[in-house]
Design a protein that fits this description.
Elements (H helix, E strand, L loop, with lengths): L4 H28 L11 H8 L3 H13 L3 E4 L3 E4 L10 H10 L2 H26 L2 H16 L3 H18 L6 H21 L7 H12 L3 H20 L1
Antiparallel strand pairs: 1-2
């Protein structure tokens, strides 16, 4: 007798949820240092019991972690954690897990360093290369920042503004970067807004970036974004 389609669908969703949960928890444990690089993972039977899952679910989770560079399996050696330099932290899931387990200040500063390396030059590229559609997106984001009435509205607009700057560069390699850091960047923007005297304290700095990009003044856009990120660093280090 054929399977009930509704039951089959439900079983598939449960299977995916279990796989995702095991992947998430094991990934965080490794990034947190519960299992040191070069050390073996617990045996399959132990992991199956710990998470209450089948061997199939566990092995799917391990394959996912292997694809992200966290672990490797070898005959007669078993499954071990790979060296830190092999970890693919430029992966949305990995970055999210790392943000959850890394010391908060340490992670915030690492993300800030990455932003300082990229965003001022992205603002200059946006000034040189923006098109009608990307200019309109930046205009909407900036206006939403001006109109924001609370932290949530401000953070959504702030995030869209910074992602809009990357999109305005007209460089296909920078757009995925925005998607990669979106979740972690949103967390940092929210923290910065809450640490400021008022949530929109950096509106003037964002406005300077916005008008420099619209004026196609690449040097001014780069300086304005560097100034904005300097304010951000000051709040992180305070």
């Amino acid at each position: 007798m054929p399977d009930n389609p509704a039951q089959t669908w439900e079983n598939t969703i449960i299977h995916r949820d279990l796989h995702g949960h095991v992947t998430h928890e094991l990934g965080k444990a490794i990034l947190r240092g519960d299992v040191a690089p070069g050390s073996p993972l617990p045996r399959e039977a132990e992991l199956m019991e710990r998470f209450g899952v089948s061997r199939t679910v566990l092995r799917e989770a391990l394959r996912t972690l292997t694809s992200k560079g966290l672990i490797e399996s070898r005959p007669k050696v078993g499954t071990r954690v790979r060296p830190r330099e092999a970890w693919n932290l430029l992966d949305a899931d990995m970055l999210d897990w790392y943000a959850r387990v890394a010391p908060p200040l340490q992670f915030a500063l690492k993300l800030q360093e990455m932003r300082e390396m990229i965003e001022p030059y992205a603002a200059a590229l946006a000034a040189d290369n923006h098109e009608d559609s990307s200019r309109e997106r930046l205009t909407r984001a900036h206006q939403a920042m001006v109109d924001a009435q609370n932290v949530d509205e401000w953070v959504r607009a702030d995030l869209d503004f910074h992602l809009g700057v990357l999109a305005a560069c007209s460089n296909e390699l920078l757009i995925p970067l925005g998607a990669l850091i979106e979740r972690t960047l949103e967390g940092q923007l929210r923290l910065n807004a809450k640490r400021a005297d008022v949530y929109n304290a950096s509106l003037a700095e964002h406005t300077a970036v916005f008008y420099a990009i619209l004026a196609r003044d690449a040097s001014a856009a780069r300086r304005a974004m560097a100034d904005l990120l300097g304010v951000t660093r000051g709040r992180i280090e305070a």
